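Q: A reviewer asked whether we had any structural model of the full assembly, not just the individual parts. We don't, so I'm hoping you can provide one. Inputs are below.
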Amino acid sequence: MTLELKPGRPAWWLRAAIAAIGAAVVGILALQGLGFGLMIVFAVLAAVAVALPSSPGMTVFIGATALATAFLDGSSVGVAAVLLIPLLHLGHVLAGIAGVIPIGARLHLSAFRRPLRRYLLVQVSVLALVAVAVLLPAGRIDPIVEVAGLLAAAGIGLLALPRR
Amino acid sequence: MSNRAERIRQALIGGRNQTWHGTETLRRGLFLGAALVVTGVIMHYVDLVLIGAPLLISGVLATLAAPSGEPRVRVTPPPRTAESTDAASVVVEIEPGENAELLAIRLPTAGVGGPGPVHLLPASVRRVAAPLRRSAWGEGVDVRVDHLLAGPDAMIVHGPMVGIDMSRTVLPPLDKLPVGPLPPRPAGLVGAHRSRRPGDGVELRDIRPFQPGDRLRRIDWRVSLRSTNGELYVRERHATADADILLALDTRADVVPELAEWSVSLPGATVRPGGSLDTAVRAAVSLAASYLRLGDRVGLVDLGRPQLGLRPGVGRRQLLRLRNQIVVCASAAGWSPAPVLTEHQVPQGAVVVVLSPFLDDAIVQAAVHAVRRGSRVLAINVLPEALIADRSDRWGEAVRRMLLLEHGARLTALRDRGIFVMSWTDGASIAELLRRIRR
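A: Here is a predicted structure for the entire assembly that you could use as a starting point for your response.
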């Protein structure tokens, strides 16, 4: 079947979505009590991620946000973290896609169907993890369980390493 | 294998763009996800684990479902020559390989010039048809199918691959003109124009006494019976003749109404839409089409580059040749300081139609020399009617007035030397002028 090409939507929408995510993340961090100076740093990182989505800007932004929320929130799972998880993941996915197309590209919404489905699947599994984390008792965990957890994470990491 | 040898090998096989490879986003996502999870577990921060987990899972899924196979993109090339009204399209067939999810492909789009923007499509698309529509005439690259295929979340990609430029020539558009009779060419005996010579045409020339050699069917019996001298009389008719038209196109200047734009080049285009060269070309092809339809012989002279001229000829093939040649002339326009119109370029008895904005004296001299050699010359002025002064320059208005005065003086000089001058406003006015200059 032949697809008759339509004009599509401008790729600016993709960057606008990344910008909106960046603004939302900075807003959440501000509500958590992030200082003004650090907010400027986060805003700059978000701007870099919008302007150069294929650059390490988004990775640094996600990492810095994770560290900031962890130190602001403490060891428990807060509402801010629950909000940040889907936002940062979405930012990562959108930056990945925006990084392989030029800024003047045209988007066809049907292209996002499968990435969106996978995103929702990952988020459901992560939210299940959140539920487990909320239900689990806080406090010190047996060192053996911790070591087992670390080994499991290392195993996943080994599996995930690129083969080429 | 050494690094150097590996680099040479990669260059020969086309580099890593020819194979499926992970992007930096994939590597960074995996690294950050694993680092956050491990750090969260060690430092007892659940937030870090939960933020890192989606990145890690996405990266793992992308790696496990990595695309494979050799993607192929086949383009059915559009016709090399087209009319501006043609609704052609380019068809691209895609074999994306296994597990490919996204296709970024450069395709022409309505309203966007050139090869068009990159479109992000699902890789499940196997065949895409993109419209090819270019309103401006001339030669240009309309298709270049650059493409990239990507796996899940665009983390593993194949490409980007640069496509081959496919250029098309859009022929100048034809406006239908009401064509008037032209001065006849003495050597011709066929055609649509009345000759002064007697022949087998339709129009009555004279009634004269019968002579040996006259055809019997030409005898005018009514006049012969009424005559008192008893002689037979015959009806003599005019011969019909074809005519030679030589379109002399001044490609040395291309000006628009805004004087400030005269020295500014237009990026990506050789001819300014609505400029003097555009008008001259449209006028030339319209005149050529009308007269070729009548069976006349039409030729072309590029006053800027004489070697690009076209000898007079007849028929539809000549019209096609002429339109293509005008595109060639326009693409090489604007380098010659003086116009060239020698006697070798103008056939005996031809009508020379000079299409120019008449911005220098050299073009006037060339036209006058053609008249002195015995050619009938018609000057069509294609300078935009209302020139707009450069407002950023305080001498802008003075420059505009000076230009108009000089231009007017040139047109007067042409008229004084027996050259018919007319501005190109519409075809009917030109046909009317040609009717007036008929002998």
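A: Points you may want to mention in the reply: The longest strand of chain B covers residues 193-209. The two ends of chain B are 87 Å apart (CA to CA).
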